[in-house]
Amino acid sequence: MRKFFKILSVAVSILFILILLLSYGISTNKFNNLVKNKIQKNIAIAKVDFQKINISLNIKNFNLALELIEPNIKINNEKIHINQLQFFIKLTPAISKVYILEEVNINLKNNEIKNIKNIFDTSKNVLLKKNIDKILDGKIRGKLKFKIDEKFKLKKYFFNGFVQQATVDLYENLPFLTNINSQIVINNKEVSFKKGSAQLVNLNLRSDLSYNISEKKILGNMQLDGLLDEKINFKSIKKIFNFKFLKLVSNIDGKINGNFNIDVDLNKDYTINKNNSKSSINLSNLFFIYKFNSKNLKIDDLNSEIQVLDQNITYDTKLKLNNKTVKINGNYNFKEKFHKIKFEGKVNLNSFFKSSIIQDDVVLKTDVIYQKNDFKNAKISMTLNNSLIKIPYINYSKSKGKKASLNFNLNKGNKNYLIKNFKYNSNKGFINLDYLSLNNDFKFQNFGKINLKIANNNFQLIKKNNLILINGKKIDFTTTLKEYLNKDSSQSFTLPNSNLRMNISAAFLPSETLSNFKLSAQIRAGEIQSLSMFSNYSDGKVFTGEINNRDNQKKLIIYSEKTKPLFGNLNYFSGIYDGIFRLEKEYLGKSLSTTYIKIENFYIRDMPILADILSVASITGALDVLKGKGIYFEKLNLKYNTINQELRIEEFYGTGPSIGFIIDGRVGADNFVSLKGNMVPANTLNKIIRNIPLIGKVLTGKEGDGIFGASFKIKGKKKDLQTTVNPLKTLTPRFIQRFLSIFRP
What confidence score (pLDDT) does residue 620 get? Predict the structure, then answer.
């Protein structure tokens, strides 16, 4: 018995020593090949080399711990730097030389991320490769644990480590996200990023985020602050979000501060199922250029508070638009893509549109709706008290300081814009329009009933199918006629194909009034094809006009028993009074026409061009008459051709008892005037000599010319004509001048 206890005592002592040794570890190289083969067999892409194995007993979990001494590991030929590599195997099977791996512990040194990412096999996963390739550089370290079942399948995993100074290529042409630092915790239940920070140019990002794997839920907080500038490359951001607004923005500069409380539930395909996130963003002192209708709008001193909740963005913004203060509030729903905007402030409409009707500042209020990022409708209100308004078609103007307002609704259809409930009011005057249709380029298409009672206008315009009716008490053509005759208007207005009927009690012309004005016209392709017009002046004299199309020859005929309202309103013939006026214009082609004008028994007075010629030529008697009652002419004949908007005079002369004239030249398409002519005194004497057989016409020349005369030239733009008179030619008999001109090259 004593011998038995002695043997048992020795055995227990040996076991105690063995356990003690195993607890502290035993180093050996006997198992090197066995471990290497096991790793190579189960992880084909891994190559492991080491000096020894330290074997110790893990009493807590009752298994053996195998720690590789000076491990050298390559995965996919990339070296992985580690401090420690441990394998835990079940103790009982190991006694029978059956090695069942339970756990692997890896303590990573600082490894370059660009080397770590190469261990992943991305040949069969394009998406994985794309995302891994975005990680450009940085370092990673930490502790990694794997628990493995008997079939060598992963049961549990855990990583607790740090990413330092990493760089990520977020998106094509965007600056890199740099200086990324974060603690990373990964296990079977969640992935967490703690105390994260990064930089995007001058923007600083901080975050604490976690992703619950089983619930597919993201929770956490992100903070953003810094400077916005063009280095961020907003062109690429515009591609990401596909907002039309962003695509028109450039030269961004300003500050941003944001706080994002994230609470997102994902679907199985990782799309958003529910978003309970709450975010707030503050923009301050923001500047950018916004392109609108080919015009650059300067947005400055923008300050905005933006709140994001679930699928909605609300914002409250104050800014300066071209140095004028405005407020913009709005709400955008991501799911419905529904955007409601409220705009209020002082603006100049010429900043947005090419407009000569409304000048200077207006106080604008709008409620605008966008659906699926496309404009849908707007309710627009304008206060025009400090605006200058000119509507030349009806000779209406409103000066600054007088009260006025404009309200209308603008709706967008598939192929057009529709203005409805248009109401303009100023004092007791008004313009009301049922609707106005414009195409997508804002060019006129159609309109509804118009009621207009303002200034010298009081009429109603009604459109019924192809028939346009204009009826009323009065209409003012003063500015329209002047601008048409002198072609100074920049206005362009094309009527639709229609039959036009006008019946107006009083139509105002420059210096005259027409009574019982009646007009009937047919309009096709924006041009008047036929016209019949009749009226009387206030003293009973007749005014008529017509356009006819006979034998495919279009012809305009105007007859007026007063010359001043028509010919006398041309800039350089403004001094013509009285007389009977006849005009015939033949349309010979698209850009070709011939015009005949004849005026009888008229006076010319206060005409600056004629005064200059008479003064230089020293025809003092005629100059005195010009300044008084006027110079009387028996007739004026003018024939000219218009070719591609250039006027070429074929014949132009005038005759009277005391003076005559003859003119030749052209007016270019660029409105440059180049005329030359002769002013002939004692026209009655010249007429008698002209009737002498054989020599009369030789001495006097054409009708309007004479024996003696003042030769002159008129050149320059219409509004800046220069007149010169040749003194030598003034003294030289005209028949000698005409004879010498034959020999000019």
Answer: 45
Neighbours of 720 (CB within 10 A): 8
Would 354 be classed as within a structural domain?
Answer: no
Buried residues in 145-166 as b, exposed as e (16+ CB within 10 A): bbebeeeeeeeeeebebbbeeb
Tens-place pLDDT, residues 111-145: 888 877 766 655 555 655 666 777 888 998 999 88
Q: Please report which helix (H) or strand (E) contains residue 52, including its range.
A: strand 52-58
Q: The whole model's pTM is what? A: 0.68
Q: What's the pLDDT score for residue 696?
A: 41
630 assigned to some structural domain: yes
What are 473-493's pLDDT values in tens digits?
999 988 777 666 555 444 455
For residues 42 and 44, what is the distance between their CA atoms, to the nearest angstrom?
Answer: 6
pLDDT score at 95: 57
How many Cβ atoms sit within 10 Å of the Cβ of residue 40? Answer: 13
The pair of three-digit structure tokens given for residue 347, joined into one six-digit string:
């603006």
Determine contact, residues 320/279, Cβ cutoff 8 Å.
Answer: no
**Full DSSP string of 376-418:** EEEEEEEE-TT-EEEEGGGTEEE-TTS--EEEEEEEE-SSEEE
The answer as to whether 203 is a domain residue is no
Coil, helix or strand for 28? strand
The answer to whether 286 touches 254, Cβ cutoff 8 Å, is yes
Query: Containing domain of residue 103, as a range?
Result: 24-124+142-159
DSSP string, 428-458: TEEEEEEEEEEETTS-EEEE--EEEEETTEE
Parts of the chain with a pLDDT under 50: 10, 14-17, 21, 240, 488-491, 615-626, 685, 688-690, 692-701, 704-707, 728-745
Q: How many domains does the chain have?
A: 2
Alpha carbon distance 703, 651 (integer Å): 10
Task: Tell me which residue of 295, 334, 325, 304 sits closest to 228, measured CA to CA.
Answer: 304
Half-sphere exposure of 208 (CA within 13 A, CB side): 5
Buried-state track 66-75, b at ≥16 Cβ within 10 A, e below 16: bbbeebebeb
Residue 493 lies in a domain: no
Give yes or no for a contact between 610 and 636, defined as CB atoms under 8 angstroms apart.
no
